[in-house]
Design brief:
Blueprint lengths: L4 H6 L31 E5 L2 E4 H11 L3 H20 L6 H21 L10 H14 L4 E10 L6 H18 L7 H12 L5 E8 L7 H9 L10 E3 L2 E11 L6 H28 L3 E3 L1 H4 L7
Antiparallel strand pairs: 1-2, 1-7, 3-4, 3-6, 5-6
Helix pairs in contact: 2-3, 3-4, 3-9, 5-9, 6-7
């Protein structure tokens, strides 16, 4: 089954507050997709009901996707429409007004969005997502940084090391009164002190203290008192550095309920395709493409 999230959106998914189960109110709404024009062609059948080329053309344009992907989405849309009818949504008063697309929206909202709320319902998919992304929601303090460096290789002499150290001390002393330093201002100010001596520089993303490749760098960064302040000169395995703290992600230790609440939207997006497959298997749905008309899709407007 193809992805349907973009399809539901483009057909007008009315995802919102939970509604009561549908109550029969009269004859069911017409749910069979209709020919858009005399030139429209059937490109597939889902349990004998047509999927029209016009659906594919419109869906491809709305979602900026390929005709093949749009065909898969229209087939899945027809599948969910039939499932909605099977569950009684065809007699719901809202569906009687909104027809085909509204029934799919009701089905997704009430059965999937409101019904799938517990991690165990997603099985191994939840476990995999949790393992991959838990560090995003439960983590230590992370700090971003920027540095200027006088590079020294492994063959540097003691004299070269002392000279680099002295220059790094001068840079650190000049930067010590500064507040609100960031990468560009750090480099500009440091290079004035360094003169013709080239300085290495990099803006480093936020990491926890144990994730840095050099302990001296990490400890110096995490000892800084506030964002935008520069450190004293510090010897790292690459040379002599002056480090600025530029970003902070506070430690987070949410409860299990908070973790579930934060990760449910992601797992629902990832699991939706499997849920559609389960719907199809439960109904014994047979999807049959019409090859000679599928070939005509590229000629459709």
């Amino acid at each position: 089954m193809r992805r349907l999230l973009c399809l539901i959106s483009s057909f007008g998914c009315a995802c919102g507050s939970p509604k009561p189960p549908p109550t029969p109110v009269g004859p069911p709404a017409a749910v069979e997709a209709q020919r858009a024009s005399a030139d429209d062609v059937i490109v597939a059948h889902v349990n004998g009901r047509p999927v029209w080329g016009s659906c594919v053309a419109i869906q491809a344009k709305r979602t900026n996707t390929t005709r093949e992907a749009a065909l898969g989405q229209c087939v899945d849309f027809e599948l969910l429409a039939q499932t909605a009818e099977h569950r009684g949504f065809a007699t719901h008063p809202d569906v009687a007004e909104q027809t085909h697309a509204a029934m799919v929206s009701q089905l997704v909202t009430q059965v999937y969005e409101d019904g799938y709320t517990k991690p165990e319902q997603f099985g191994a998919d939840w476990d995999a997502l949790l393992k991959k992304n838990l560090w995003h929601v439960k983590h230590e303090n992370y700090r971003g940084s920027s540095y200027v460096r006088i590079n020294l290789d492994a063959k540097a002499t003691p004299e070269q090391d002392r000279a680099a150290h002295a220059l790094a001390d001068q840079i650190a002393a000049a930067l010590a009164p500064e507040r609100g330093l960031m990468g560009p201002s750090l480099v500009a100010l440091a290079q004035r002190i360094a003169g013709a001596t080239p300085l290495a520089h990099e803006d480093v993303p936020a990491y926890r203290i144990g994730a840095f490749a050099d302990d001296n760098y990490a400890n110096t960064l995490f000892d800084l008192p506030e964002i935008g302040r520069a450190s004293k000169a510090v010897r790292t395995k690459w040379g002599w550095d002056v480090i600025v703290w530029t970003d902070d992600i506070p430690a987070a230790s949410p409860s299990q309920d908070e973790i579930v609440a934060q990760m449910l939207p992601d797992i629902k997006r990832l699991y939706f395709n499997k849920w559609v497959d389960q719907v199809a298997k439960g109904l014994g749905v047979h999807v049959e493409l019409v090859p000679e008309n599928v070939a005509k899709l590229e000629a459709l407007p």
